[in-house]
Batch of 3 targets.
Target 1
Amino acid sequence: MNKRQSRIFAIVATGIAAVAFVGLTLHSHTRFDELTNAQDITPEVTAGKDVWHKYNCINCHTLFGEGAYYAPDLTKIAQHRGEAYLKAYMRDPSKFYDEQRHRRLMPTQNLSEVEIDNLITFLDWVSKVDNQGWPPRPIMVTGGAVNVAAQGTDKALTQSQDVRPVSPDNDPRALGEHLFRSATPVCTACHSLQPGVQLAGPSMAGMAQRAATTIASPDYAGTATDVEGYIRESIVAPSAHLVPGDMFSAAGVSFMPNTYAEALTEEQVDQLVAFLATMK
């Protein structure tokens, strides 16, 4: 290829790339309203965005992968944690950490109740934007990471000696393990399978032993009579018995979503129970 041919090739290639870029940009703009649910942008959502900027949340957190990487990406946090948890957390983050063990770095911002409500409304809107799976990276949480990109695969997210191996076939325990990593809201967003790794909810390592101890306790407020029954109750009626401490409940209501009874079939709940009962 001589100089003239090289010049022509470069000009044509640049022109084609420019046309493709402009075309894709215009196409994106035609879909922004649909992808972002623009019709749901209420005054409260806008006010919540203002709160996000007022307190410089982006200095530590990211949305859609954009921002600082000092703290967790919050793109889907409203779906992963829920309103009750987020409200209690924003009021006083110190209740969710052991200062000596976890070195809490989230400051107490002293937000007003209106600011908290608006910020949660904003984060809820953000969580429903169709971001086509971006960013495809782990959501970092205290003590470990939840690999969102791995959810839905047949490979376990975590390995622990406290987790009894289950069959990859049609064993209910194996199906329950898959549900643990793929149900909505996803269980791994709040619960670890590693002993000692406590996220928004308690670690599932040793779940069966703790369940037996809880049922035998005079402080138990639920109706279960065995380990499997307690695990089932924790899934479908999480506020039946509240684990002591401010980390897991507020005003007598568990932070655990109460939607699994409707979102899961009886068979799926049985599968989850079968899997969690292996956590000796």
Note: Strands lie at 62-63, 66-67, 139-141, 144-146, 249-250, 253-254.
Target 2
Amino acid sequence: MTVGISLPAGGEQGENLVTTLLDQARQAADAGIGAVWFSQRQDLDALSLAALTGQAVPGVRIGTSVVPLYPRHPITLAAQVRTAQAASGGRFQLGLGLSAKFFVEDSYGVPFERPIRHLREYLEALGTLLHDGEIDFQGQTLRARTAFGPAGVPGAPPAPVLVAAMGPQALRVTAELADGVLPFLAAPKALDDYLVPTLNSAAAEAGRRPPRVVAMLPALVTTRTEELRARAHEDLTFYERFPSYRDILDRGGVERAGDLFALGDEEAVAAEIRRYREAGASEVVVTQTGFGTEEERLRTWRLLGELARQEAGAGE
């Protein structure tokens, strides 16, 4: 099982945020962490950061968690993916998400209509572009045509595509057309009872092998458990308003999103990470490691590197 982190971790400082994040990616790799995933924000571009990191930090796998597919066209996204894949020497993995209606429409002025149909057509088009380099596709929500012929980048094999899918319909589409899922705030119970069986069943029906399950888990090694738990409840309340997150929380038997923030000493955080593996996660990506102090972040990263080394040793 790969153990990764998500950047920005929170609380980054410095005169140049991109430089800071590259330095943190090097620091994570030095600690033994196997993968670095970049969050897409409105101030930073995750794909650009992934490409830069792929060149600057050898060995570590890189990804995005996640890039909203609205309003990017798959031809444009495929070009960005090829660039990041070539820059990293084949170590890039694309994390995609539908986002939410209010965000897409308010931010971009793009109608959020028939999202499951759009996800299906988007994944079909993107998969064709990444594998074949050209497309002439006309769907119900999407038109894509490579007017200038095949497009390919030497050194850029097709990158894995993962989707931040949690609803039943999105999981089925993902199982048919993508390589895995990136669920956030999906408790071990939700993984074990619902998400993994739904995903694997849909993959079997489509004649495909079980997709990867890359569980995103907020976690921090700290002695300030009660203080930070109260803050986590406040900071993660945002997610409780979204139907998809509310549903996955309910399936996991979780009332407050902040309850899923793994807080405590090394033993407590490691035990929580192992619960996700036992529930069916093939990988765990730890988020919000900058939630506390710099010392707490570094302590957490040292633990994650040690867990990665233990996993590697167990697999030999």
Note: The chain has one domain: 2-315.
Target 3
Amino acid sequence: MKRRTFLTGLAGMIPAGILLSNTNFNDTPTLSHTFNPKLPYDKTPENWKGTPQLSDGTFQNLYHPFEASLAAVLKWKLNKNPQEEEKKADKRRLDVEKIGTFQPNGKDELIWLGHASYLLYIGGVTILIDPVWLDNWVLKRNSVLPIIPEQIRDVDYILISHDHRDHCDEATLKLLGGLLPDAKILTGLNMTPLLQPWMPKNKIQEAGWFQSYALSESLRITYVPSRHWSRRGLMDTNQRLWGGYYIESSDKTIYFMGDSGYGPHFKLISDTLGSPDFALMGVGAFKPEWFMHPAHTSPMDAARAFRDMGGKNFIPMHFGTFDLSDEPMLEPLDWLRANPEAVNGALIDPFLGRNLI
């Protein structure tokens, strides 16, 4: 992404760039905890009180307070990228296998659609995760979408981890709202006012961290913490909750990280819900690390988090489709391939459009 293009899209996606603040500095916000009273807690950490929220309405990370600095954004974007020439010379792109109409054969499937977007069939249920398939005013795809949207049928749930534009795209969701009006949306607290106008026929469930959604199937999906933040415009910082998902069927568990920096919450999740069979871990958009690490894990930090969780299979994501940071787009995968011991030899090499489980 060009620096000037980034600055025009500053409000919507990359951390720490607050141009205007909706905080009243004359009042010191007080901390409380919240949840959706309509949804259950099946498993919680010891002494769990709920999702942290300040009296000004902003949600908070469990262990690391959100910090915003326009000066840090400008320092990054106005300084030269030390890997700029290397990045320009690297023309490699992700391998893609077109899949046509999705017709499950009864076996579980996890198909990567690029960045943090997945098509999942598990326990007889079809799920879309963070579908961002169309170019928008900030993002341009650098990998081919493996499937034609109109060829997806009978989706039960659409999971939207948080409101950032590389995970929550208005045009894609409007398209899916028309194609899949019966699909239920599973997301975080206070996301309905954003999503419902785009998908007026779709029912939406909002969860706090460690709450499980009300599903008719035996499948259990729990919304879990991440170390991140949220914003779509200039005045709504952290007004919508962010998180990941822990998906459990009768014979398999899948952890989807969403966006997150490294922190103790990874072990907290596995201590509470168990070590995942498959961990979908963000590894890209991590340079410069001094700036990105509170919001995105590097491949090194993602590997550390995977080991903290005791995961069995490591599936990297959040790289190779959108150009969001300083590193060449396939550098995270290069590091993982060169350091298989970092994930205990459990790397599943990603391939767009191919079943990964």
Note: The domain at 3-36+50-80+106-343 is CATH 3.60.15.10 (Metallo-beta-lactamase; Chain A).
